[in-house]
Design brief:
Shape: elongated
Order of helices and strands: HHHHHHHHH
Number of helices: 9
Strand content: under 5%
Radius of gyration: 19 Å
Largest sheet: none
Structural class: mainly alpha
Oligomer: single chain
Length: 185
C-alpha cells in the first residue's frame, strides 16, 4: 500500500490515494492500533470530500466510527456513524444503512439505553429482512437477544435466540448448497 500510495500521489490520482489511505487505516485497525488507523482515515476522508466521492466518504466514516467505538469513545463513534448514515440514506444503500443502524444500536446498548437500542435494532432487522441479508439479520437477532437479556426479559431473549439460530441454519444450508453446485448466487 505504501508503494501504491506513492504512485497515486505521483500521478495525481486522488481517488486511488484516498482508497489506499483508507485501506492502510483498516490494516492498522485490524492490528488494534486504532489511533494510527484514525490518522489514515482522517486523511482519506478529506480526500473523499475533496473529490466528491460520497460512497467512499460514507464507508470511511463508518470505519472512523468503528475505530472510535473500539476506543470506547462512544460520542465520536456515534457522530461518525450518524454522518455516514445520512450519506447512505441519500445514496439509497440499504445494506450499509442496516449495518450502520446496528452499529449505532450497539453504542446505545453499551450506554445502557435499551429502548433506543431496541428501536434501532428493529429498524436494522426490518431492512435486513427486506433485502434478504441473512448475515445482517442474524447479527441483529443476536443483538436483540443480548438487549433483552440485559433487560431481564428471558422470554424475548429466547425468542430472538431461536430466530437467530434458524437464520444461522439457513446461512449454513446455503453455504452447503453453494459448495455442492460449485458456484455462487
Amino acid at each position: 500500500y505504501s508503494e501504491a500510495l506513492t504512485i497515486f500521489k505521483k500521478i495525481g490520482n486522488k481517488g486511488g490515494e484516498g482508497t489506499t489511505l483508507n485501506n492502510i487505516g483498516v490494516i492498522y485497525e485490524s492490528r488494534g492500533d486504532f489511533i494510527k488507523a484514525l490518522k489514515y482515515y482522517h486523511i482519506a476522508i478529506i480526500i473523499s470530500k475533496e473529490i466528491g466521492n460520497k460512497s467512499s466518504e460514507a464507508n470511511i466514516l463508518k470505519n472512523i466510527g468503528r475505530a472510535y467505538y473500539s476506543l470506547r469513545d462512544f460520542q465520536k463513534a456515534l457522530e461518525s456513524y450518524q454522518k455516514s448514515l445520512s450519506i447512505v440514506r441519500e445514496l439509497k444503500n440499504p445494506s450499509l444503512e442496516g449495518s450502520l443502524l446496528n452499529n449505532i444500536a450497539n453504542i446505545y446498548l453499551s450506554l445502557g439505553n435499551y429502548n433506543q437500542s431496541l428501536k434501532l435494532y428493529q429498524e436494522s432487522l426490518r431492512i435486513g429482512r427486506e433485502i434478504k441479508d441473512l448475515a445482517l439479520e442474524s447479527t441483529v437477532l443476536n443483538n436483540l437477544s443480548l438487549t433483552y437479556s440485559g433487560l431481564g426479559n428471558e422470554s424475548n431473549m429466547l425468542n430472538y435466540q431461536q430466530q437467530c439460530l434458524s437464520v444461522a441454519q439457513k446461512i449454513q444450508q446455503e453455504g452447503i448448497c453453494r459448495k455442492r453446485s460449485g458456484g455462487s448466487r
